User: Which sequence fits this backbone?
């Protein structure tokens, strides 16, 4: 195991050295980022406010409003309500390439337990009308803040670059429908065709680092709702019931064998049952049980195999219970793998190494999380690259790494305790976006 | 297995013949019940209305109001709001024994699926503030209606009996706290001390039958809420989590071994997990899972053994998952066994046999359901007896019995499809209450 | 639950008192048993020798030889090799009823761990050619010894009784084929038709007690071998296998739900997987797994239901594993319920009570063990009764009973630590057989 | 996932091109291998004979005898009985490097089901005295045959190379103790110190191919025997038992969660329970159950984590069953990872590519199997490399690959149906050994 082992952890040593340093990008980036110190306090304030006001997917009205207002101030051409709550800003700055930078805006139905002074106490109502506590447990607030910071700095130094900058604030990444919604809402007609689409995601890696990877970087993800039909009865008369609680438990237990037995050791895959629901009291055997589950895979063969195994197991366990009705499978979301194109990724890696040094410009391992980012370049017909942004206090991270307790001690995305450190996370997020975009937008001498 | 085998099913053959017929009771009952034909239609209407207006425990305001109003009309001394929503009516009718007849009034958080024209579409809010569909899925509407019918008939023919009749309408039987609440609210001070306390319960047995049993008739019941503490994480990174969904599933699976392996074949016991709840989406491993479970037993040794096994298994499965926090156990309700006193039960059985014949006056098997009825005689210091009332269309029942599909085809109490036939259920419920009470209240020749 | 609760434990209180004492039997028994003191030491020696020389079913050559030799000495007409290794002795003693007394002779493939000075170290080879340690773990050595004692005493006091005594020593009770083998080998042609067939079994109840029961006393038993077909592979490549170890484990786990969920609390049933076998090393996933399982039930409906559930679960779990071949089910043995006829059982109970007193003549609960004894009266066309014989030191038993640890501390039949106390077990076993047979054979005054 | 994904499958595209062709080696190899046609028939005969006469570890007397005889014929200095049954042959051929070539000789306790005309019907007795069918299910017969072929060809053309050739035939690789035994038996004193130690293993990859890999190539392996202590009882009285069959099943089921939940998707690991054993009949609950299990891992952190989880789960499941005795853990074998040194691996890869072409000189993925080969270079203080040798008919393999059914249709090592095709497997095995050794032993012009 080399670079495949560590999930989001970095393993710099395994990467080929960048083809060559990129002094032009580095120099342009230095110029643009000179203003970072002046806006840092404002960005941090914006971030904390946003963290306290998380919004569920397709409900990012407040967030989108703030974004649009800011982009307008900085003279972007702004289009709102693209794919319901998405926002696009375009800044034309002479001839040159077009670069799209993307941030996602939505939060999660998680009750925040970080203990942060700016922790969220917000609630939101999901599409089924159920109210939940809501938290930016996946760090999209970091993404929005950093992209606004980069947008502002690039807008303030149009002398340092040329071409067209598109900043895109996407709704509802979490269930995989936001990028698609923007594409379906005519995204390609609303912006110039990008030469490259770029995005980043904060991860449980050391803050101050960025992590790139060519090829498949993030997993495909399939989410299903499975409804199991038993037969209810009084809790004291199980013989009159087909107990859906026991059935659901057997399904969950049996599903563990998919990854443990049906996939080779070297094929990464995950089957998670994130939710199990049946009954409402101790003493009534309910009629049905509902599972919500998620499958991660990195190639189509594994994906097909795992999804088939899930269906086979659910169906057979229903038969083992003597269930009368067939189980129901409902697809909740589907994400493809995030597959970074070779050329832009190499270019960005070179720019990052030139600007941040080898210690901070790392190579990513496979990340089992998923993204709908890929829908944007797919819809726009352009290449793309997506990188990771460290969000954990470096000392804390390194200590846990030495103790071998990263998995245990470092809360990851979607945890109710996921808490990126404000700095250097935000600074590095801004720097990465600026640097990467300038790898296209920095004016080059002819012929270079 | 003879009479122990069939749960609520009747097995007349195994009962000792009643000591002697009881012509005095039979004759008085005939007189009182002569009026049944006149009130039948009114009772049926009351029943259907009540069925359409079910109320959760301690919220039986509408039901209690109708009850109190009717009792007042019939000249009972009425006390309302005993134990929150309980109602007592007392009818003094000269010297003689005091008989208490009890009905429970509360409904269940079940979405009715009977398809009856008078099916409930009501909802109610439980003590946690959660709204549920509500249904009279346990037949308490039958109990209330029959007791009102008996109260009316007995009040209209005070010439046919002597003594004191106490009719008691109890709230919140379902979670086992209503009878206790009435006792704690001074029940013993509010009524004369009964010579006997009587009650009945509609069961999935042929309508038109009654089922008596001396000694233990219904199970002890212990309901627990168990909270399992795992550790949440992104669904794609199970290695960072302690998955409470898998833990909960393992607990449910393991709990099956308690009855299957730790209790002798001839010791009746049930462990039902009626509710399992964890997570809210496919892709976030939650922090905790919650089980609500119920244990049925018929003697203290089995009860102790099963409850200890439940705790041992839950605790050990948490350890197997490497869970950090201890599981939490919360007692939701406790019911003792329903233990019918020998003398009153024999007396009632004799009266039933004399009035209804051997074919309809059956002996009950052990009933795995539970009751808080026993709290009333315990709180009042009097003997008691409790019998079953068939509620299923006799033809349907017999057909299922011959096909061996009773358990499958006859919805039982607490099922969303539990639907007692209106007649002869209501008639028989009234007749049983009248006949049983007259076994004490019918005037007897001196010396008999 | 009263008399159904206690498995083999006695519950004297629940039995109807014997119709009437039986002074004739008691007096004849006293006469015959007067010689017990003289043969006690010899019987004890025989018992310990037999215990040290256990033989598997249909291999009871040494035991049968000793039995035949002794019966010949006492002037019985002896027939050997009935049903392979069975022995019959007939003693004609004038006109009168014919009574058959039966003992079974075979031992079990269990490694004795009693620590007794006369513990077995014997081995034997089963019908598959596999060698096992062998032990009288079910107490058949007690049965043989007691029946020889009774045979000797009755033969020595032919003045005290009249009629015909048939003593029958049966092979291979354990897998249910020995009684059938004797019947098939012409048993009915070899002996006079008995008026009654009697047998006894030593149980984990207080030594010195006997336990009778009318009607169903012992369970039906069905033993199956289930072969599960997976697909083998190197242990490191589970994805190339269909793991039969995991499949077998899931089947075992799922089978727990049959008793826990599919049978009512008051229906006694047991599903035991006594053997699981798959693979031979840590690192090769084998092709198949084999389970041997046993189902106990007390009525045909439960038996049918449980056996159907076992098949459904096995088949469905194979499907859940994606197994290619169908599972195989092989019936290893089938025992019917042991159903004691009313009249002879009452007669014996009365005789026992008259001779031993109420404290030692107890009523049995349902015994979940099984017997092929019933094949004999079925094959001979006579009524029958079968009783239990306590084998545990009474003080030890009572102490465990008070502590509620009988199940834990008192090794039961088939345990490697099952160790009946020699006395008063043997004495009582002889006395019970003599007394019960004299309830028919004691000369009665005309008209009685 | 690129080269990590495929287990033993080849993925040529992911390998860096060899630094440079190696015409010297290629030319020397051509000379030596010119004789292959003459010995092919003899080798094939030897192979089939060996396949029919498999011997368990440390019992390879016949095999070792044939090997020693042949080496003696070809003028090797032969030492027998090194590490019990190991054989060493040394051929001095002037100045130059020393190369050690290793083959392992032992077979497995598997009943062959290949249907081959030369299938094994042999049996053998393991160290516990139990007899098993025995089969060369891991292809060590291929290794022995190919090494003998290479030894013969190199001995017949000493003009084509110079230096010292050591051929080593190792016993008992399967349980990981054979290489260690040779080292402990003074291997380093018996042979000149090698410049490199080389070995190969036949794998389910296309015959005619070789597969090299730098760094970790094969898994660490830990095999354990786990004994679970329950309490036996009659099968009808589970309440008197602590059922070790159910306990063992729960352990097996729970162990599936280790790989499924406690290891990241991108960390390869395997937990296989290869054997489960409890009880001997349907109706006696046994006292104990025994599992044999194997853990595969590729780095120490994963290894530690998985082994700790196994212990935690076993111990907790015993507690969940209320088991009285602690479970016992016995280490059966331990293999470290097979870690190929960079320099020799590159050298061999270059030589293979030069001789066999890119299509047949492939790069290996991680192989989840394990090897004790590494003990030899560790004990001798020399670098090493180990490669894979395809053994499956190429057409069959490619067809299965296209159909995505390799895992299903191509029996792998340790399967009872593992059947390498004789050719081109043997030819390629000989060619690979000759070619790789000549990468050191081919005479080079000065300064090259």
Assistant:
């Amino acid at each position: 195991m080399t670079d495949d082992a560590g999930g989001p952890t970095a393993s710099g040593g395994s990467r080929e050295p960048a083809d060559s340093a990129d002094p032009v990008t580095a120099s342009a980036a230095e110029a643009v980022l000179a203003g970072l110190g002046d806006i840092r306090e404002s960005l941090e304030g914006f971030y904390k406010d946003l963290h306290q006001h998380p919004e569920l997917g397709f409900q990012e009205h407040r967030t989108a409003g703030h974004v649009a207002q800011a982009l307008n101030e900085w003279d972007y051409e702004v289009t709102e309500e693209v794919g319901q709550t998405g926002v696009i800003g375009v800044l034309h700055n002479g001839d040159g390439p077009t670069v799209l930078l993307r941030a996602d805006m939505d939060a999660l139905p998680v009750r925040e337990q970080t203990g942060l002074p700016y922790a969220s106490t917000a609630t939101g109502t999901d599409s089924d009308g159920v109210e939940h506590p809501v938290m930016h447990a996946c760090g999209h607030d970091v993404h929005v803040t950093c992209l606004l910071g980069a947008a502002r700095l690039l807008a303030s130094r149009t002398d340092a670059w040329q071409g067209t900058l598109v900043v895109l604030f996407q709704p509802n990444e979490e269930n995989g429908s936001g990028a698609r919604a923007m594409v379906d809402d005519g995204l390609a007609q609303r912006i110039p065709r990008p030469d490259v689409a770029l995005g980043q995601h904060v991860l449980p890696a050391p803050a101050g680092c960025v992590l790139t990877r060519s090829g498949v970087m993030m997993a495909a993800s399939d989410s299903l709702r499975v409804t199991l039909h038993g037969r209810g009865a009084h809790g004291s008369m199980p013989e009159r019931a087909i107990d859906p609680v026991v059935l659901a438990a057997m399904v969950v237990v049996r599903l563990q064998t998919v990854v443990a037995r049906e996939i080779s050791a070297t094929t990464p895959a995950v089957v998670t049952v994130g939710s199990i629901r049946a009954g409402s009291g101790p003493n009534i055997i309910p009629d049905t049980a509902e599972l919500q589950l998620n499958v991660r895979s990195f190639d189509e063969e594994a994906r097909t195999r795992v999804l088939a195994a899930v269906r086979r197991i659910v169906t057979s366990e229903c038969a083992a219970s003597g269930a009368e009705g067939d189980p129901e499978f409902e697809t909740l979301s589907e994400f493809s793998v995030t597959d970074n194109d070779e050329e832009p990724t190499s270019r960005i890696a070179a720019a990052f190494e030139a600007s941040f040094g080898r210690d901070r410009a790392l190579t990513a391992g496979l990340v089992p999380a998923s993204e709908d980012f890929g829908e944007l370049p797919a819809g726009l017909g352009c290449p793309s690259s997506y990188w990771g942004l460290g969000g954990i206090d470096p000392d804390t991270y390194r200590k846990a790494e030495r103790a071998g307790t990263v998995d245990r001690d470092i809360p990851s995305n979607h945890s109710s305790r996921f808490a990126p450190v404000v700095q250097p996370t935000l600074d590095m997020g801004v720097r990465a976006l600026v640097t990467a975009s300038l790898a296209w937008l920095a004016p080059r001498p002819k012929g270079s």
Observations:
- Chain C touches chain B at residues 1-2, 4-7, 215-216, 219, 253, 255-261, 264-271, 296, 298-299, 301-302, 365-366, 368, 404, 407 (CB under 8 Å).
